[in-house]
Amino acid sequence: MSNERIGVLVMSYGTPESLDGVEEYYTHIRRGNPPTPELLDELKGRYEAVVGGVFPLRENTNNQVAALQKTLDAAAPGRYVCYQGLKHARPYIEDGVEAMAKDGITKAIGIVLAPHYSMMSVGGYIKRAKEKAGELGVAMSFVESYHLHPKLIEALVDRVVGKLGEFDRSQPIKVLFSAHSLPERIREMGDPYEKQLLETSEAVANKAGVADWSFTWQSAGRTHEPWLGPDILDTLKELADQGMKQVLSAPVGFVSDHLEVLYDLDIEAKAVSADLDIHFERIDMLNTDAFYMEALAESVVDKDEWKA
């Protein structure tokens, strides 16, 4: 292996650093259009319900990047240097590429903290990183997805099996795999997102010995076009109508504790489940799980086309 240092741009969606940064963050998501006071109050209310004045969400990504650096150092000491690039918060994706270039790095690998590829999500991250890298003369290759990496599957299986132990196993339990919804038009585009999510869910269910499972969506955006469904809240109502009393939520499209998990599932879905007399639990998120970090590190090393 050559002695040249390879940059690793670790990309994710981003979250504000504090409640004071929510408006700037939301404006960036809305392509420079500030949210209405009502929308801003609603989003702030969600953050306040989750974080209660303390704001640990940014730390999740920081910790993941640090843990990946440690894992890469163990696999190939001195070879890889991790940088962070966020889609909607500082340091932005472009900032991460610029930091690499300033440090004299000319070759880099990009990876997103999201295992499943969509042109509308991961594809967008890659496009921005490529454009900035081209400007600055940094050669970049990208890990587009790692949704069936054996260690990712193993980490998810551990969580599903562990959490099933909190249910009455003598009664039926439905496992609901979920991910962030995207506009329905991705189906016409031949986007692999939905297929990859179903492949991950099936692999986890098979290895965990789960026969009764289904896939549902969550956290759809508020736009005029239709988004992929059904939403998990509607699915819970359907399950209640069928007499199901126990549901395990497995949000395999997410890799850390953030708003779509801590609010949309832990507060909103749990409240709906309580009203429906359903025992609802959620698997623990991957965060800095050793298997997940190894899945990321191995995906990066496999993409290193400059190895001697």
Q: What's the CATH C level of the largest domain?
A: Alpha Beta
Number of domains: 2
CATH architecture of the largest domain: 3-Layer(aba) Sandwich
Spatial strand arrangement across the major sheet: 2-1-3-4
Structural class: alpha/beta
Major β-sheet annotation: 4 strands, parallel
Order of SSEs, N→C?
A: EHHHEHEHEHEHEHEHHEH
Task: Give the proportion of residues in helices.
Answer: 40-55%
Q: Count of DSSP helices?
A: 11
CATH topology of the largest domain: Rossmann fold
* Poorly predicted runs of 5 or more residues: none
What Rg, in angstroms, do the CA atoms define?
20 Å
Please state the overall shape, judged from the principal axes of the Cα atoms: globular
How many β-strand stretches? 8
How big a fraction of the residues is strand?
A: 15-25%
Q: Mean of residue pLDDT?
A: 96
Task: Compute the separation of the termini in Å.
Answer: 4 Å
Concise description?
It is found in: Cytoplasm. The chain is of the alpha/beta class.
Description of the molecule:
This protein is an alpha/beta fold and 308 residues long. It folds into two domains: 6-146 and 289-302, Rossmann fold (3-Layer(aba) Sandwich); 150-282, Rossmann fold. 44% of the residues lie in helices and 15% in strands. It is built from eleven helices and eight strands. It has helices at residues 22-29, 37-51, 57-75, 93-102, 122-136, 150-164, 193-208, 232-241, 259-262, 264-275, 290-302, and strands at 6-12, 80-86, 107-112, 139-143, 174-180, 213-218, 246-250, 279-282. It has a four-stranded parallel sheet with strand order 2-1-3-4, with helices on both faces. Strands 6-5-7-8 form a four-stranded parallel sheet, sandwiched between helices. The longest helix has 19 residues, at 57-75.
